[in-house]
Amino acid sequence: MSPLELEQFGFSAQDKILLSARVCRPQNNIESIINAFKLCNTDGKLVILTGELADRAYTNRLVDECKSDKRIVFLPTVTESELSLLYNVAQSTLSLPFIDQLSTTILESLTCGTSVICSDIPPYKERISQGQNGFLVNPIDISSLTSIMLRALTESDYKLNMEKASRKSVAGDSWDENSVNLIKLYDAPLNYDKQR
Q: Which residues contact 51 (CB under 8 A, 6 or more apart)?
């Protein structure tokens, strides 16, 4: 992201950013992310994407509760290009729902070489190697979450150290291959190869 592009969002090139790219809804546990970040005594920024499908009442309440903390930035819908740039400049992406399937947010982040701090739920455990391409944490353990956020925001080589493992963890993925694996897993009665 160029300095001009960063400035349009209220960031400078020196800012260390944590990105919450999930739609702003209660089930995505945005409140735990905010509460943990507020305990981080750093100049880093927390960027929360609200998205078009956000729960507006929930989002408005969070925005109102956070308006005094200039380190927390809520962004409305961003373009795919802007989202890619945000993934690339972020120290880490946050995804802390209580239940989920494998989130595209996680895959997008890892593809950009950005580690993920996420819930220790089964689908995420399949992708995240603790301390290598991200961290798995209990989504309601604010103390542990704060500690990991601080690490991402303060360790000088944090992003660089996780970048290679993050990209490697999604290398070779394809929708076709994943579809075939899912069909095999669930023993679907259709023949995928004949439908292609």
A: 22, 23, 24, 77
Closest residue by Cα to residue 28 from 115, 146, 119, 141: 119
> Quick one: pLDDT band at residue 6, thresholds 50, 70, 90?
low
How far apart are alpha carbons 184 and 196 in whole angstroms? 16
pLDDT tens readout for residues 128-177 = 999 999 999 999 999 999 999 999 999 989 999 999 999 998 887 766 76
Burial annotation 167-190 (CB, 10 A radius, 16+ → b, else e):
eebbeeeeeeeeeeeeeeeeeeee
The answer to whether 137 and 148 have CB atoms below 8 angstroms apart is: yes
Q: Tell me how far apart the alpha carbons of residues 99 and 161 are, in angstroms, rounded to a whole number.
A: 29
Name which of 114, 74, 96, 89 is nearest 28 in CA terms: 96
Pair of tokens at residue 156: 């000088």
User: Which is higher by pLDDT, 9 or 157?
Assistant: 157
